[in-house]
Amino acid sequence: MDPRLEHDLTLSRRQFFGGSGLRLGALAMASLTGAAMRGARPAWGAANNQVVHPALPGLPHFAPQAKSVIYLHTNGGPSQIDTWDYKPGLEDQFDKDLPDSIRSGQRITTMTSGQSRLPIAPSKFKFSQHGQCGRWVSELLPHTAGCVDDIALIKSVHTNAINHDPACTFVMTGSEVPGKASLGSWLAYGLGSESNDLPAFVVLTPSWSAQAPAQALFTRMWSSGFLPTRFNGVALRSSGDPVLYLPNPPGITGADRREMLDSLARLNQHRLDQIGDPEIQTRIAQYEMAFRMQTSVPELTDWSGESEATLSMYGPEVHTPGTFAASALLARRLVERGVRVVQLLHRGWDQHGNIAGDLPKQCSDVDQPCAALLKDLKQRGLLDSTLVVWGGEFGRTVYCQGGLTRENYGRDHHPRCFPMWLAGGGIKPGVSVGETDDFSYNVIERPVHINDINATILRCLGVDHERFTFQFQGLDQRLTGVEPQAPVEEVLL
After folding, report:
1. Which residues on neighbouring strands pair with residue 445, listed in sequence order?
2. Fewest beta carbons less than 10 Å away: which of 306, 411, 452, 488?
3. Is omega for the bond preceding 60 within 30 degrees of 0, making it cis?
4. Contact predicate 422/387, CB 8 Å
5. 3-state class (DSSP) for residue 424
6. Neighbours of 396 (CB within 10 A)
């Protein structure tokens, strides 16, 4: 079939009328601005040595403290009462009902709203103080406890969402409404990347040890939303080849592939010049990045050059592809090579029951690798330029879901307060911000909204969250939404 005829046959009604001269105003504007717009990011060919991921003009707004972000997301909602929010007074409240004055009629999920009572479940895990800052940390996190003088802990984070999907969407996009751009995509769009051979935004989804079913991960957590699709996060596979089809097919050499891509780029560029569709620009960029990744990804995942001391620091699971330990080391190697944002999504933290069995396994997955990542970055001089963020989408209830014993219990979702910690570029080490009440149920000092966290992340990278916008559906969209938000100044250098 004639490809021109095939193209015409597959046109949608909207595409047909859009290209038939009925939108004269838009066409006139396109004729005036299209060439300049297209010239802003020309096609990438073999002879083109430009930066693949340049920053937007005018960004960063001010001198950044950090150049990259590693976001360690504990998907499911870790229990703050069993990890970072020490509440020794709860021992005297075991199996007593949560006071109505504490709950104050607040919304709870249907998973516990039908219970005849809400019995208080103190943590069964011991806490002790660590570091010069004297931080109280659970026995479940002994390695991270050794790094408390390098991190800023925020105990008073809160969110609007009470269920996983909207809460995770909120954490990563600043909104419960699907379709918004993710944090990593915003940063890739605004600040670009220092690597020409790897994506600006990489996503890792490591395995988890607790055998309980885990919440699904939706691609909207690393989607570009309304931003051009070339700013989507690139998810590397946790098993097998990190990227499918990296090797050339039998009989095809690198030179053959280069020639094919150059020819394809010329065809795509011709079509781009005709209609100015930004998705064609994305296609050109992605083909070119895929070609470069054929060389860069095998080198990235070859750990033969890592010292035994470094590997042992991350723990024995570092040798098992797809584990959190292996992913944490891979994250360091990615930012070392100029990647702007690395996002690790570790599942299995939704402990509605069997905290005694599941939570220690989840903490064991992340504890040593998190500490090793901070130490590794620090000893390489990268911690000052890398912002590390740890946290989930909400916390857990002080009251028990299901049966309660001294040795085991479950906890429901709790959006009113939960901890997050930050370390590295732009962050004041060893500080603690915010406090919760005696039941770890309400914030009583310095509430921090999840979009305040996002504003803080942007600030560390030299971006004013109020001026960082993208026009969509008649609004100047922002990562931090339209309500007033502000960086957490107490944790900033």
Report:
1. 435
2. 306
3. yes
4. yes
5. strand
6. 29
Angle formed at CA 266 by CA 264 and CA 269, multiple of 5 degrees: 110
Amino acid at 65: Q
Residue 16 confidence class, pLDDT cut points 50, 70, 90:
low
Cα 45–Cα 275–Cα 187 angle in degrees, nearest 5? 60
- 406-441 burial, b at 16+ Cβ within 10 Å, e below that, comes to eebbbbbbbbbbbbbbbbbbbbebbbbbbebeebbb
Find the angle CA(57)-CA(173)-CA(454) to the nearest 5 degrees: 70
Q: Under 8 Å CB-to-CB from 119, ≥6 apart: which residues?
A: 95, 96, 97, 98, 399, 400, 404
DSSP label of 100: H
Q: How far is residue 194 CA from its own chain's centroid? A: 19
Torsion over CA: 375, 378, 384, 386 (sign): negative
pLDDT, tens digit, for every residue of 67-105?
Answer: 999 999 999 999 999 999 999 999 999 999 999 999 999
Pair of tokens at residue 96: 């007593």
Rounded to whole angstroms, the Cα distance separating 169 from 78 reads 17
The pair of three-digit structure tokens given for residue 42, joined into one six-digit string: 């020309």
- Among 412, 392, 389, 388, smallest CA distance to 400 is for 412
Alpha carbons 485 and 384: distance in angstroms, whole number: 25
pLDDT digits (tens, 9 = 90+) for 287-303: 777 777 777 888 899 99
Whole-angstrom distance, CA of residue 251 vs CA of residue 259: 14
Residue 392 CB: number of other CB atoms within 10 A? Answer: 27
Alpha carbons 441 and 157: distance in angstroms, whole number: 12
Close Cβ partners of 405 (under 8 Å, ≥ 6 residues apart) = none
Tell me the C-alpha distance between 187 and 224, whole Å: 10
Q: ∠ CA(290), CA(265), CA(254), 5° rounding?
A: 50
Largest CA distance in the chain: 80
Distance from C-alpha of 285 to C-alpha of 342, rounded to nearest angstrom: 20
Q: Are strands 341-346 and 201-204 parallel, antiparallel or unpaired?
A: parallel
Name the DSSP class of 69: E
Contact 161, 415 (CB under 8 A): yes
How distant, in Å, are the alpha carbons of 24, 74, 75, 256, 393 from that of 168? 42, 10, 8, 43, 5
E strand residue ranges, 131-282: 135-138, 151-158, 201-204, 234-236
Q: Is this structure's pTM higher than 0.85?
A: yes
The size of the chain, in residues, is 493
Contact between 231 and 377 under an 8 Å Cβ cutoff? The reply is no
Sign of CA dihedral 148, 151, 154, 157: negative
